[in-house]
Amino acid sequence: MKLYMSVDMEGISGLPDDTFVDSSKLNYERGRMIMTDEANYVIEEAFKNGCSEVLVNDSHSKMNNLLIERLHPEAQLISGDVKPFSMVQGLDDTCAGAMFLGYHARASMKGVMSHSMIFGVRHFYINDQPVGELGFNAYVAGYFGVPVLMVAGDSQAAAEAEELIPNVATAAVKETISRSAVKCLTPEKAGRLLKEQTAFALRNKDKVKPLTPPDRPVLSIEFANYGQAEWANLMPGTEIKPGTTVVRYEAKDILEAYQAMLVMTELAMRTTFS
C-alpha cells in the first residue's frame, strides 16, 4: 500500500509564529528539525501498519525544508520549487490514501498563521464551497480517487478537516490561542499522538471516502486589495467580479483550477503597496 504525505510547516507542534517558518528568521532551523521529526513519527507508524511505500512531499514555502539526512530511510521525498502541482505534487491514483501533516486553517479564519497560499488571499471558493489549502488539496486527491485519511496540525485545522471530510482522523498537536500564539504538546507527546492517529487512520481507511470535486469547477479568489485582483486578472480566461476584489476562472477540471490558482496567486504577489 502506497501512502502519500503532504507536509506543511505552520501546523507543526511548537511553532507559534513566523520566526519558525521563515528561512530568514531566528528559529527556522529549530522549526525544520521539529518538522522532520513529526514527519518521521507518521512515516514510521505507516510502515508498521501495512504501508509498503511512503511518498513525502515538502509543501511549505520554497518546499525544501525537510532535512533528508534526518528523514526515515525508507521514505521518498519530493523537495524543491517549482512544482506543477505544488503541495500535492506526486499525488496520483497509485496512492491508497493521503495524509496532510503540519496544516493550518484557511485564510480569514481563526488559527495559528492561518492563510491560503499567500497572505493577500481572503478566500478561495470552488463553486460556492469555501476552501483553504487543506480543502483544495483534498479535492485534488479526490480527483484521483484518493481519500485523505488523516490531517494533523493546530486545533483549527483539525476542526476544518472534520467539517469537510467525514470520518477523517485528526491530530491536533497544538491549540490555537491567537494567530501567533498556541498551547503546544511537547514534541515527544505530539509524536505519540501522531503515531496513535496514523495507526487509527490506516485501520479506519475504508470508512473515509475521497472528497470528489465538482465537474467543470468555478474557482473564485477574493484578494485583499484591487491591485492583487488586477494582477491575477492578467491570466487569460479570468474575470474580475464587478465591484469586488474577486477573480473568477471557469476550469475544465479541478487540476486546471489548481494550476490556475497557483498562477493567479503568484501574479498577485507582484502587487506593491508604495
From TrEMBL:
Binding site for Zn(2+) 2: D8, H60, H104, E133
Keyword Signal: no
Residues that, per the record, bind Zn(2+) 1: D8, E10
GO MF entries: aminopeptidase activity; metal ion binding
Matches recorded under Pfam families: Peptidase_M55 (PF04951)
Domain of life per record: Bacteria
Annotated active site: H115
Keyword set, alphabetical order: Aminopeptidase, Hydrolase, Metal-binding, Protease, Zinc
Protein name: D-aminopeptidase
